[in-house]
Amino acid sequence: MNLPVTPPVEPMLAKSAAKVPSGDYLYEPKWDGFRCLVFRDDDQVVLGSRGGKELSRYFPELVESLKAALPQRCVVDGEIVVVVESRLDFDRLSDRIHPAASRVKLLAEQTPASFVGFDLLALGDRDLTAEPFTERRAALVEAVAEHPHVHVTRATDDPKLATTWFQRFEGAGLDGVVAKPSQGPYTPGERSMVKVKHERTADVVVAGYRLHKSGPIVGSLMLGLYGQDGVLNYVGGSSAFTMARRAELIDELAPYLLPEGESHPWVDAAEEGDDEHRRPGTLNRWNAGKDVSFIALRPELVCEVRYDQLQGDRFRHNGRFVRWRPDREAKSCSYEQLEVPAAYDLADVFGG
């Protein structure tokens, strides 16, 4: 591959902020998918993940779409997404990472991937990484041909409009807003951008914990919410604790350890083969050797956590522990407390 910028390249990263910043920025919607750097040299196309893995074998249909839409020699930074019923679907996107070629082929037909470009690192023989972002973006808009599965993201220099996007686009499955210095170069691996993500709180049941890899201290709390059928569903974990706090949690949780022979909604579900409700302890898609066993607790303890968004019936990322809620009854911790964003048609986001 004979390009002025060659793989692997670590993508430019972002630091978090509580609100949309003002200043000399270009603002973009924050897409919820797989970060991807596309390297194209004529018929050669490499899809590089954030961690440097090659993704082309999982998205053969996207490779063909990119050949149709991108210039013959270029490097584009963007996001791979899957669209289902007018919104982004991260679960269906995750399903695409499968070892079986036959399964990859089937999913490529059933849930075709799209690519959203937001930066241009090279075009022809030109290395654009030192150019201002406004110039790189203008070149990207001009370079990408219209295609149903290849898009250039929206952008604006108006922080008020960016704030409106932040409020509305979540209903289409987007993740927030990104602010990029308009005159800044492309800086691989550096947190030169600013990201603003949605964050909410919820009261959840602590029904178990996993041990830390370093020893007999808490690695993560196991969190649950009750569905309308009265069943406790596993919704994710909370693991951002200091080592000292992890040791303290062992003692705090000891009174809630499940006595031998007592029933537990997640343990019983596993033994009875209940596949309708979420529970911990299933195989890990990304690391088949990972220990996913947990220590069960009586589902009586309630805590408040911060979370960014709900993905189906679970938290998209681990919740962040805020405080214990001894005033809350565990049975009152249901999905009904969660804020659901108003639906928004993804076609309007692409169409902008």
What does this molecule look like?
The chain has 352 residues and is of the alpha+beta class. The protein folds into 2 domains: 13-197, D-amino Acid Aminotransferase, Chain A, domain 1, CATH 3.30.470; 200-337, Nucleic acid-binding proteins (OB fold (Dihydrolipoamide Acetyltransferase, E2P)). It has helices at 60-69, 90-95, 101-110, 133-143, 159-168, 243-253, 265-272, 346-351; strands at 13-16, 25-30, 34-41, 44-49, 73-84, 87-88, 113-123, 126-127, 150-152, 176-181, 191-197, 200-211, 218-226, 232-238, 295-307, 310-311, 314-315, 320-324. The strands form 4 sheets. Strands 3, 4, 5, 6, 7, 8 and 9 form a 7-stranded mixed sheet that branches. It has a 5-stranded antiparallel sheet with strand order 14-13-12-15-18. A 4-stranded mixed sheet has the order 1-11-10-2, covered by helices on one side. The chain is elongated and about 70 Å long. Mean pLDDT is 89; it is low at 282-291.
